[in-house]
Amino acid sequence: MELSVNGHAVYAHTGGRPFDPALPVVVLIHGAGMDHTVWSLQTRYLAHHGRAVLAVDLPGHGRSAGAPLASVAELADWIVALLDAAGVERAALVGHSMGALVALDTAARHGGRVESLALLGVAEVMPVHPDLLAAAAANDPSSIELVIGWGHGPRGHVGGSAAPGLALLPGGRRLMQRTPPGVLGVDLAACNAYARGTEAASAVACPTLFLLGAADRMTPAKAGRALAAKVKSSQVVVLPGIGHMVMTESPDAVVDALAEHLAPKAR
Which residues have CB under 8 Å from 130's CB, separation 6+? Predict the structure, then answer.
């Protein structure tokens, strides 16, 4: 599906079904240097189980035009503009890593537009090593190797894909190699600079699911739990042996957790 957001063409995958804004809407937001394809094993399930799905390519990523936005706050405001463009008043937001910060900030500052949150691979702060920031800014291929290597848990380092014949590390590597020059550097700098995690978490009023990997070396589960404690209504699910790339390393468990979290609740 193509939309126009702030004058630029934007692509969002709808999970194989036509987008219907009359249904409960869920927006999935990818992490640094990635695109909507990281949600491939979640979007189809959600779209075929009562949700209208927008797995979006952020500006400058995947099939979306425009320059990458330089801060988490700008990206959060962009999510609201995306909802406006899609004719959606309120949506559930699901975000991974940088996308989790974006979802968190959106809910904190635009709470009336957010029904619920699911945050994967998240922490109050996400500092990035200066050497990685420099490598990404210079488009050094080593930056991709560092992100992919550190981003996957033990399963990813021995194949690990739920799809037969594929492997997680080569797949992640190829995805990030397709990202336009400069984008990863902008994204990592935005993560590194975001300092409103505690403030944002305290302002979130909607139900929030934290999906964390026990073997996550980028945003350790301990840090995710600490952030969850600052949210008024939160649930924490920790997946054993899983690294930072939660939705690709353990797609079935993520689907199960999202399905339960997004299910209509009795009132």
Answer: none
